[in-house]
């Protein structure tokens, strides 16, 4: 199956139409010619590699994940596990600088690599959200991106490492085979607005557009992958659906991924704009709520739980 590819060097109106089509059909697309400088990516990759290569006791200085910080095998607070270790950071420059002290022996180098990456990827996320608003004919073109640009945005950066499985000598490593694969990161949707994900050249990411059918996403370190998150589903009044995805470890090479989760400020009220609740479906599918309320609920549930149903509007709302 051909997954949608958005080439940002193409004509703007074509790009915005393509993004909307991809979000409607898959809640997911690949971005090429994205403009994030290669040295910004390499700088972060180098820091991530050296962090994950540290002895466990040193990595644990940045943990436990509360939910920010270093975590290993346990995902969230509700018993989810996977063959993954990770470092989750708030994207606020001050918070990055503070956290870097417990993460790296060269905090200023680590902090500058993370901040540089966050700045470039946030810019890309905002550009993609403006194009999305244009494609949807939402009159306020920066309605979505404003939430991520806000100084109080609750956006986060997650660095994932799926280590080589030492018992993998008999594994079939062909991308189409899932013989003996293990779950690295179980099935879920991302709660935020847009996720911008990139990885090294090792596969494992899969998306599901139909219950029980998983589509492997071929790795491409030169590209970004975009996931529609739960908040964009709400702000498009269900026209886009947040994509269910997971990461498997079926390779003998370790997988590394970097995910920027573009989120609103905690107190931002999340609701679809008037254009998204226009006739023929003049009803808002979801009741208004703040990102803080949604996040609290999401983080109190399991990874794979459907959370948006709890925020559906009732007829008498
Ligand atoms: C089990 C969980 C981990 C998670 C919080 C949650 O309770 C449900 C959502 C999970 C998720 C998925 C996308 C991101 O990786 C993440 C950081 C997020 O915002 O929501 C994780 C949460 C986490 O690992 O803390
Ligand atoms: O590592 C991956 O490719 C997926 C990671 C992911 O889904 C997440 O961090 O939420
Ligand atoms: Fe995810």
UniProtKB/TrEMBL annotation:
Protein name per UniProt: gibberellin 2beta-dioxygenase
Top-level division of the source organism's lineage: Eukaryota
PANTHER family, per the entry: 2-OXOGLUTARATE (2OG) AND FE(II)-DEPENDENT OXYGENASE SUPERFAMILY PROTEIN-RELATED
Pathway of action: Hormone biosynthesis; Plant hormone biosynthesis; gibberellin biosynthesis
Organism: Carpinus fangiana
Residue span, Fe2OG dioxygenase domain: 152-264
Lineage summary: Eukaryota, Viridiplantae, Streptophyta, Embryophyta, Tracheophyta
Reactions accelerated catalytically: gibberellin A1 + 2-oxoglutarate + O2 = gibberellin A8 + succinate + CO2
Gene3D superfamilies in the cross-refs: B-lactam Antibiotic, Isopenicillin N Synthase, Chain (2.60.120.330)
Gene Ontology BP terms: gibberellin metabolic process
A GO molecular function held by the record: metal ion binding
Enzyme Commission number(s) of this protein: 1.14.11.13
Family of the protein in this entry: Belongs to the iron/ascorbate-dependent oxidoreductase family. GA2OX subfamily.
A Pfam family the protein falls into: DIOX_N
Keywords, alphabetical: Dioxygenase, Iron, Metal-binding, Oxidoreductase
């Amino acid at each position: 199956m051909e997954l949608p590819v958005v080439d940002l060097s193409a004509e703007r109106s074509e790009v915005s139409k393509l993004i909307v089509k991809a979000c409607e059909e898959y809640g997911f697309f690949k971005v090429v010619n994205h403009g994030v400088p290669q040295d910004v990516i390499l700088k972060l990759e180098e820091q991530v590699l050296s962090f994950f290569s540290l002895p466990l006791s040193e990595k644990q200085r940045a943990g436990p994940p509360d939910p920010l910080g270093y975590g290993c095998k346990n995902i969230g607070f509700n018993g989810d596990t996977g063959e993954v270790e990770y470092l989750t950071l708030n994207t606020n420059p001050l918070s990055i600088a503070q956290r870097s002290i417990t993460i790296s022996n060269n905090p200023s180098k680590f902090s500058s690599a993370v901040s540089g990456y966050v700045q470039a990827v946030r810019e890309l996320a905002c550009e993609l959200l403006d194009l999305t608003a244009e494609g949807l004919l939402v009159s306020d073109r920066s309605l979505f991106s404003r939430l991520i640009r806000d100084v109080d945005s609750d956006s986060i950066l997650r660095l994932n490492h799926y280590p080589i499985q030492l018992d993998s000598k008999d594994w079939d490593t062909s991308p189409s085979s899932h013989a003996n694969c293990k779950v690295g990161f179980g099935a879920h949707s991302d709660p935020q607005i847009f996720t911008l994900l990139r990885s090294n050249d090792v596969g494992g990411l899969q998306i599901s557009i139909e219950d029980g059918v998983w589509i492997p996403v071929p790795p491409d370190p030169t590209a970004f992958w975009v996931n529609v998150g739960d908040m964009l589903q709400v702000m498009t009044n269900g026209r886009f659906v947040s994509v269910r995805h997971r990461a498997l470890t079926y390779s003998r090479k370790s997988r590394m991924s970097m995910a920027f989760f573009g989120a609103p400020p905690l107190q931002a009220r999340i609701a679809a704009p008037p254009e998204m609740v226009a006739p023929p479906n003049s009803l808002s599918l979801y009741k208004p709520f703040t990102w803080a309320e949604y996040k609290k609920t999401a983080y109190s549930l399991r990874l794979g739980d459907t959370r948006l149903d709890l925020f559906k509007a009732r007829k008498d709302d």
